[in-house]
């Protein structure tokens, strides 16, 4: 997504605005997922692992067939207020799925969120910097690879749970 936004030719101020927005949503959504996912996981007990896996698979499928990055990039660059919040949620829905399963992993949530925020910050800066230099085909292939990785991770969690 950052590469698509970078291809629009943003100014320096807008590049920083987008960077901070992406990093905030990428770091915040796992916390939302954890807050929502922990009570759900407690309520559903033994099938919580399967629900977390299903959420990862669903996000991967959504990434493969969902909204076009170019359309979202243009709306994000032009948007303000609630429109930007809505788009921020849309671009970080995969992190929400990660948050659902975070409570089940036993990993320290603060460390995970900080790592996600740092990774998002670096990835957005690189994406914005190189967005206009990479071809559409490369960007789309990278997104497809990420989607397949999420689907694979969800499938692995199911297989691991069954084994």
Structural account:
By secondary structure, the chain is mainly α. 85% of the residues lie in helices and 0% in strands. The chain has helices at 2-6, 12-44, 48-65, 69-78, 82-91, 93-105, 109-130, 136-162. The longest helix has 33 residues, at 12-44. The radius of gyration is 16 Å and the shape is globular. It starts with a helix and ends with a helix. The model has no long low-confidence stretch (mean pLDDT 74).
The number of helices is 8
Number of strands: 0
* End-to-end C-alpha gap: 36 Å
Average pLDDT confidence is 74
Low-confidence stretches: none
Q: Tell me roughly what share of residues is in helical segments.
A: over 70%
What general outline do the C-alpha atoms trace? globular
Following the backbone from N to C, one meets helices and strands in this order, namely HHHHHHHH
- State Rg: 16 Å
Percent in strands: under 5%
Strand count, sense and closure of the main sheet? none
Structural class: mainly alpha
Secondary structure layout plus pairing:
Blueprint (H helix, E strand, L loop, with lengths): L1 H5 L5 H33 L3 H18 L3 H10 L3 H10 L1 H13 L3 H22 L5 H27 L1
Key words describing this protein structure:
163 residues; mainly alpha; globular
Offer a concise description of the structure:
The protein has helices at residues 2-6, 12-44, 48-65, 69-78, 82-91, 93-105, 109-130, 136-162.
């Amino acid at each position: 997504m950052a590469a698509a936004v970078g291809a629009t030719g943003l100014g320096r101020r807008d590049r920083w605005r987008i960077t901070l927005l992406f990093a905030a949503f990428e770091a915040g959504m796992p916390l939302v997922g954890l807050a929502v996912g922990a009570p759900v996981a407690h309520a559903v007990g033994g099938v919580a692992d399967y629900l977390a896996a299903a959420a990862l698979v669903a996000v991967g499928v959504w990434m493969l067939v969902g909204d076009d990055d170019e359309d979202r990039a243009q709306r994000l660059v032009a948007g303000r207020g609630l429109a930007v919040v809505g788009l921020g949620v849309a671009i970080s829905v995969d992190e929400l799925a990660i948050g659902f399963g975070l409570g089940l992993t036993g990993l320290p949530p603060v460390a995970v969120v900080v790592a996600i925020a740092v990774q998002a910050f670096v990835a957005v800066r690189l994406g914005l910097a190189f967005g206009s230099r990479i071809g559409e085909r490369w960007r789309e292939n990278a997104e497809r690879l990420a989607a397949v990785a999420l689907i694979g991770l969800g499938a692995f969690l199911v297989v691991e749970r069954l084994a």
